[in-house]
Write a structure and sequence with these properties.
By secondary structure, this protein is mainly beta. The chain has helices at 2-12, 18-22, 25-57, 411-418, 458-466, and strands spanning 70-75, 78-82, 86-95, 103-108, 114-119, 122-123, 130-135, 142-151, 156-166, 175-181, 184-188, 192-203, 209-214, 221-225, 228-229, 233-240, 248-257, 262-272, 277-282, 293-298, 311-314, 326-331, 348-360, 365-370, 392-399, 404-409, 426-430, 436-439, 448-454, 507-508.
Length: 516
């Protein structure tokens, strides 16, 4: 618009004749000069505006991204392989541009009866996958040129290598198998057990392999005699435990290796406790730690306490009165501790059972581990966060009762307590209309707790405490369970059953073939 406006102004004032200017004196000449200057300025402004419009309408194009490029090389470029064998070579893709992306590899012109594979099958340059060239018994003999191609879908590169296939099989690569006989053994803590390890040559020329073992339990060492040998050969393995070795069944890994080829088998080691203790806790037995607390929770009298009653009950309906629900709590609050007559923390619980005398039998009894505090003298239906239902944890134990003494297994709950859970007792309930009535700690037949356990030496207990933040095999917080016979004596050593062994297993590490 500025250009047009300037043009209109100029057309309204025709340029004066030069002769007229000369004859009109200095004032007329000065007026002519001003007109010339004005025209020049207007034209300059118009040109600048036109250039700006052109630049805005046609911005400068960004430079094109650099093309993707890479080179391909193979080393070694040639090799030989027998029929039914394999050879390897290395393919290297080198980036030649800043911009790269994944490329895929393939073989072209491979002779019949052969195949090639790449590991990895694709990569981003610069990278060097391994090419494995495999021949079958039908592969043609002679020297063949194989083309290796690499492409990202837009850019492709190729390189060739030669392979000579002969009727003579390639030399066998060293390999061996490993076995252990017997594959399992049992020992008491502090004892030693032995087995034989055999390495059998399966291919190639024999050379020495070194023996080792791993995943040993605490306080256990292994010794091989001889420590190394050339397959086929045999070594004696000795596993020595200590008094600090926790009882349990362990999968020991036995390995033989020449640095390239490794074989591993599993030996099952069952460690039996050298001394197992059984303690009983029953109110009135004279024991210093036999305190027993129990009470009934009733929904018809939700604020009443029944801790002094001669019975406690778990009944889903009609308990004491029609439509009344009764539930029970039972605890042995002092049986865990460091003193003689107590079960130490971090012990391994072999078994823990409750003996309960029943005066009214029924099915459908439910037992839970309690995780909410309570007191025998104050607990009522309403004294819990959820009335009539104290907080619990873990799985439910279901059992039926008969008249007289009943034995209920609470081994898992007792293990939780010695492992650090608060010992807040158990909770009993039933959804059946005809519930069970149990003799309480105030009766002449109070409940009894029997615990059979193995306790590690004090040094090991302290070490276990310090490694509590690192559960698992390394810290042995998860001590494998043992299947041991039930013992009813107060404090005695017990006989030990044979553990069921794990089946030996052989893991082989594959060795890749290389070309000549």
């Amino acid at each position: 618009m500025s250009c047009k406006r300037a043009a209109l102004v100029l057309s309204a004032r025709p340029a004066p004749d030069v002769s007229d200017v000369k004859g009109q004196g200095p004032s007329r000449a000065w007026s002519f000069a001003k007109d010339i200057i004005l025209v020049t300025l207007v034209l300059a402004v118009a040109s600048g505006l036109a250039l700006a419009v052109t630049l805005l309408s046609h911005p400068t194009a960004e430079p094109a991204p650099s093309a993707i490029d890479f080179s391909l090389d193979i080393r070694p470029l040639s090799g030989s392989v027998g029929k039914g064998s394999a050879a390897t070579t290395i393919v290297t893709a080198t980036a030649k541009s800043a911009s790269v992306r994944d490329i895929w590899f393939s073989c072209l012109d491979a002779p019949s009866g052969t195949a090639c594979s790449f590991s990895p099958t694709s990569c981003r340059p610069t990278c060097s996958p391994e090419l494995l060239f495999v021949t079958s018994a039908s592969a043609p003999t002679g020297t063949h040129v194989v083309t290796v191609a690499a492409s990202d879908g837009t850019v492709s590169r190729t390189r060739t290598f030669s392979v000579t296939i002969s009727d003579i099989p390639s030399p066998s690569v060293f390999d061996f198998s490993l076995g252990v006989d017997p594959g399992s053994g049992s020992v008491s803590s502090g004892g030693t057990v032995a087995t034989n390890v055999t390495a059998n040559l399966t291919s190639g020329s024999a050379h020495a392999v070194q023996f080792s073992c791993s995943r040993l339990p605490t306080g256990t060492t292994c010794t091989f005699l001889p420590p190394s040998c050339s397959p086929t050969c045999e070594a004696n393995l000795s596993l020595a435990t200590s008094a600090h070795t926790p009882p349990g069944t362990y999968a020991i890994h036995v390995t033989a290796s020449d640095g390239l080829v490794s074989q591993t088998v599993v030996y099952s080691l069952a460690v039996q406790p050298s001394a197992v203790t059984t303690l009983t806790f029953q109110k009135g037995d004279g024991g210093a730690y036999s305190e027993t607390d129990d009470t009934t929770l009733r929904n018809d009298t939700p604020d009443a306490n029944y801790g002094a009653d001669l019975e406690f009950s778990a009944d889903g309906e009609g308990c004491m009165a029609n439509f009344t629900v009764c539930r029970a709590l039972l605890s042995f609050p002092n049986f865990i501790g460091p003193n003689n007559g107590q079960v130490p923390e971090n012990s391994t619980i072999m078994s823990a059972t409750l003996d309960l005398n029943v005066s009214n039998d029924s099915p459908d009894q439910h037992l839970y581990q309690v995780s909410e505090s309570w007191s025998e003298a104050t607990a009522t239906w309403n004294s819990f966060v959820v009335p009539g239902k104290p907080r619990t944890k873990g799985p439910t134990t279901f059992f039926n009762t008969t008249l007289g003494w009943n034995v209920v297994d609470i081994t898992g709950i007792a293990q939780n307590w010695v492992d650090g859970d608060a010992n807040l007792g158990i909770f009993l309930r039933s959804d059946f209309w005809n519930g069970s009535y149990y003799s309480s700690s105030e009766s002449i037949n109070p409940p009894k707790l029997t615990v059979t356990f193995w306790s590690p030496p004090p040094a090991l207990r302290q070490a276990t405490d310090s490694s509590a933040a690192h559960p698992g095999p390394s810290g042995f917080r998860d001590v494998p369970s043992l299947s041991l016979p039930f013992v009813s004596s107060h404090a005695s050593s017990i006989a030990r059953d044979e553990m069921r062994p794990l089946s030996p297993r052989s893991d082989s590490v594959r060795r890749q073939l290389t070309s000549d």
